[in-house]
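Subject: Sanity check before I submit

Could someone independently write out the C-alpha cells for this chain? I want to compare against mine line by line before I put it in a report. The sequence has 446 residues.
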Amino acid sequence: MLLVFFVSFSEIELYAQRPEVRDANISAMVTEVSSNNLEQLVKKLVSFQTRHTLSDTLSKTTGIGAARTWIKSEFEKYSSASGGRLQVSYDTFTQPADGRRILSPVTLKNVIAILPGTDPNDKRIIMVSGHYDSRVTDVMNVKDFAPGANDDASGTAAVMEMCRIMSKQKFSATLIFVAMVGEEQGLYGATNLAKRAKEEGWNVHLLLNNDIVGNSYGMETDIKDNKSVRVFSEGVSPVETPAQAAARQSAGTDNDGKARQAARYIKEVAERYVDQLEVKLIYRRDRFLRGGDHTPFSQQGFAAVRITEMNEDFNRQHQDVRTENGFKFGDLPEYIDYNYLQKVTRMNLSVMSNLGLSAQEPENVIVQTSGLTNKTALKWDAPKGKKPVGYYVLMRETTSPFWERKFFVKETSATLAYSKDNFYFGVQSVDEDGHESLVITPKPGR
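---
Independent answer below. Compare away.
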C-alpha cells in the first residue's frame, strides 16, 4: 500500500499539500520508454517511402500495405512476449468514394492490439492511437516520398512503444492500442472504428489520440520548448440531448464534460510521473483549420482528447521534400526531437496505466439540492468490480481550470462546509495503491 489514510467513516481529511506518491510499477514502465526505440520505429515507418492511404498495397517494402504489415508484425512480437494475451488484428473496412479524397471504393485497415482486462466486472476500455498514413503537399499524390516522420510516425511510434512495454503487464480495464489509417484523407479509419465501438457496445472511457507529438521547435516564433505538450478537449459533447443541455446550463458545468474532466486527469497524473513536463490544457476540440482522429469518437459520445506538441513547425508538415533557397522542407526523421517524444510517450503511458489499474468510477453521483444551505452534501454508489479503499471529493473555484483541493472519504457520501453555489465538485474512486478513477461530475438531485 502506497497511501496511508487516517480517516474514519464519519471524518473528512483535507490534503492541502499531499505528498506526491508514484506507483513503483508505473514508474518502472515510464523509465522503460526508450528514445532510441522511438527513433528506430519512426525511421522504419519513414523507410516505406510513402504511407499514403491510397498507395501501393502489394509491395513488401513500399507503401501503405507494407507499413501496416510491419506494424502488425511488431504488435505480434509484443503479443508473444505477453504470453499471447495481446490480441492483434486488422480492423478492415471498405471506404466508399467520397468525390474528394477517395475517388473509388478502397479497402482500408486499422491495426489494433487489444490487451484484455483482468477484472470480468470491469468493462472499461482505454484506447491510445496515432495514425500511420502520411502525405505531401498534394493530398492526392500517392507516389512521391511522403516521410511523415512527425505527422504521424511520431504518434504511431508512441503507441507501439507503449504497447511493447504495457502488454507485459496486467490491468483491470481493457487497453487498446491502435494505428489508424485514412486520417489525412478524412479521418476514415477513426470514423469506422468509432462507429464499430458504438455499434458493438464498447465502453470506451477515454481515447488518447497522439498526432504530431515529436517536435519541440516553433516556426516563426523560434521557440524551443521540450517541456510543454498540449491536450485539446471539448467542453460540451456533440451528442448532448436537450435535457442534458438544460441541466448543464442550470448547473453551469460547461467546462466539466467528459473530455475536459479527462484532460484534467491527464495533467495531474502525467505531471506526477514525468519530470520536466507541463501539460497545457487547451479548451478547444482541435486547432484552427485542422482535425484529428479523436473527433469521430467524440461524435459517438465517447471521451476523446487530442495530444499534440506545443509549438509546430509547418515547414515540416504536409510538405513536398525539397530544398528552396538553401532551406530543406519536409517531414523528415532528422527533425524529430526524440527526447521530447519520449516524454510525451511516458505521459501517455502513465495516464493509461494509472487509469487501467484503478477501480471504476463511483456511480449515481448526486449533489443534494433539497434545501437552501451554505454547505454541500454529496452522495454516490460504490462502483462495480474492484473495491476502492475510498473516494476523493474534488473542489475548485468556478473560475479555476484545475482541481484545487481533494478531500478523502471512506463512505459513499460527504458533507463539506463549502457552498455548492460557489464551487465546482467532482468525485473519483481511489484504490489502496493510489490509482484514481476518472472524475464524475455530480448531478443535482434530492
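---
OP: Matches mine. For the report I'm noting this point. The longest strand covers residues 106-115.
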